[in-house]
Specification:
Elements lengths: L11 H18 L3 E8 L2 E9 L12 E2 L4 H14 L23 H6 L24 H5 L16 H15 L3 H10 L19 E3 L6 E3 L9 H4 L2 E2 L1 H13 L7 H7 L13 E2 L4 E5 L2 E10 L2 E8 L4 E7 L7 H15 L15 H4 L3 E5 L2 E7 L5 E5 L7 E5 L5 E3 L8 E6 L5 E6 L2 E3 L24
Helix pairs in contact: 1-10, 2-5, 2-6
């Protein structure tokens, strides 16, 4: 029995810190109400809210509009089509939606916001005007849909995710909403996530920037643009959805495909990494990698963020057009839990059966004069890391032909091979043309450029 198992309950001090953060957010953000939830270990472990109405507070069952978090749901639908073999991410969108005028823009580029499309639609602000003004894709895209060369830069695009919703409809032969309900919401039991508001739900408000007064915001149906921002949801539903985004569910999407969604496909401008994946924003905060999405529509702001390493997710929803930074608050909630109650590491366990072939790859190696070490972990992964210095680190998965494939960083997708001599012993490692030897510049190995026959020597 593991005596260090995680306690499902948060500590009282942690819960108070979460409540305090929400209280400050509601006051400083001047929000009529804010509701939040934290999930850990796949379960909702905390819920809280703050409101301007005495004696009343929303709970995890009250709906708010979630804006662009909708895009994550749409991306899941597209990845399902890919996994079923109904499309390829490299396919041009025109293959499925002919006549849109976007040329060779690919599905992958739309998912990662690298298609070069405009950020918004032409004409009036689409979030506050009737969908009847945009009855066709031509009205969503306008006469000049491309502002940048496809694939050359990240440029966030609401019309891009509108195209993805129409793509789902074209391939499935049903509406985006029907596909979402049948393929994602029902299997994951997200019963309070809907295209339109269903009671109990919050009303959206605009708060005057210089006075403590407010007015209601219109709540428009987004029509064709629903796949970019239509959904209403609750903190409980979104906390469960956040858990799915890490663990996966074979009825909806595999953990491997979700890992692909969480991998940076488009660094944002001015930021080297992590950027944007497929329907997911990625960022580093408080020393940890965070994945999620923010959302806003007139009257509402939303944030869903998670740390896979800490196994903590947080959702924040508020009913104000601006003022409350939902993403910042959600990240703060993740950080509070992760730092106050750090996750217990998995216990070290040895191999059940040691692999004698892989064992002879372990230990020190040299790339030229750079000392490296290879370790074999109990999950069958090879780890390559520099010794006593910063540098490239990599993980490799075993393949059936005896080679190893890089899983991350510089060596992602690269092949590592153990080259053996006539005696069967490993002579050297070949990694994408780099030769790793047991001694620095080993003269017995095929070091590129050769080795000076006089060997190592001093001056004089």
């Amino acid at each position: 029995m593991d005596t260090l198992a995680e306690d499902p309950e948060l500590l009282p001090a942690t819960r108070r810190a979460l409540r305090h953060r929400i209280a400050v957010a509601q006051r400083d953000g001047r929000a009529p109400s804010v509701v939040a939830a934290v999930a850990r270990g796949g379960e909702v472990v905390w819920e809280g809210s703050r409101t301007s109405v005495e004696g009343h507070g929303p709970d995890g069952d009250v709906q708010y509009r979630i804006g662009s978090i909708t895009k994550t749901f749409t991306a899941v639908l597209v990845m399902r089509l890919r996994d079923e073999g109904l499309l390829s991410l490299g396919d041009p969108v025109e293959k499925y939606l002919p006549g849109t005028g976007v040329g060779e823009v690919t599905v992958r580029q739309l998912l990662a916001h690298t298609a070069g499309l405009a950020a918004e639609t032409p004409g009036e602000w689409w979030e506050r005007t009737p969908a009847a003004l945009r009855p066709e894709l031509s009205a969503v895209l306008g006469e000049r849909p491309l502002l940048h060369e496809p694939g050359t830069r990240f440029h966030y695009s609401n019309p891009g995710y509108t195209l993805l919703g129409s793509l789902v409809e074209a391939v499935r032969g049903t509406s985006w909403e029907q596909a979402l309900r049948a393929e994602v919401l029902e299997p994951l039991a997200l019963d309070r996530t809907t295209a339109g508001p269903e009671a109990p739900h919050a009303g959206g408000w605009a708060v005057h920037p210089w006075a403590d007064v407010m007015m209601p915001e219109p709540s428009e149906d987004l029509g064709l643009m629903a796949s970019a921002g239509q959904l209403w949801s609750t903190t409980r539903d979104l906390a469960r959805f956040a858990t799915f985004l890490v663990r996966g569910d074979e009825r909806v999407l595999s953990s491997d495909s979700l890992r692909e969604m969480r991998t940076s496909a488009a660094p944002t401008e001015g930021v080297a990494e992590p950027g944007y994946g497929f329907g997911l924003q990625l960022m580093d905060g408080s020393g940890r990698r965070l994945v999620g999405h923010g959302g806003s529509l007139p009257g509402f702001v939303a944030g869903l963020w998670l740390s896979e390493a800490d196994d903590v997710a947080a959702v924040v929803l508020a009913n104000c057009t601006s003022g409350l930074p939902a993403t910042t608050v959600a990240v703060d909630l993740v950080t509070i839990v992760a730092e106050a109650e750090p996750r217990f590491p998995e216990p070290w366990r040895p191999f059940r059966e040691a692999d004698p072939v892989a064992l002879d790859l372990c230990g020190p190696w040299y790339w030229g004069t750079s000392a490296q070490v290879v370790r074999l972990t109990s999950d069958g992964i090879l780890e390559l890391a520099p010794v006593g210095a910063t540098g490239r680190t990599a993980r490799f998965r075993a393949e059936s032909d005896g080679s190893w494939t890089g899983l991350n960083g510089y060596y992602a997708g690269e092949s590592l091979r153990a080259v053996r001599g006539a005696d069967g012993r490993v002579s050297h490692l070949d990694l994408g043309s780099f030769v790793f030897t047991r001694e620095p510049y080993d003269a017995q190995a095929p070091v590129p450029g050769g080795v000076d026959p006089r060997g190592w020597r001093g001056i004089g």
